[in-house]
Amino acid sequence: MFRYELQKIHTAELIRAADAQRLVAEVRKERRTARRSRKHEAQGPVSSLRARFVRAA
Fold it and tell me: Which of 2, 48, 51, 55 is spaced 20 to 30 A from 17 at the CA atom?
């Protein structure tokens, strides 16, 4: 009986650890997709080449 209860406790701990790892992976994936979408949104309008250089004297 004692071994059965220890096995149940161990199984519950493994399930909790797996859930925690799954949650961490989901958070990382969400952060990665948010970062990628922000990177594409952050690109502003492209300036022309004339605006980059000053007039020569």
Answer: 2
Cα angle 16, 17, 20; round to 5: 85
Dihedral over Cα of 29, 31, 34, 35: its sign: negative
- Provide the terminal-to-terminal Cα distance of the chain, rounded to the nearest Å: 95
What count of residues does the chain have?
57
User: Could you read off the pLDDT of 5-54 as tens digits, one per residue?
Assistant: 999 999 999 999 999 999 999 999 999 998 888 776 656 666 666 666 67
Q: Tell me, what's the pLDDT at 31?
A: 94
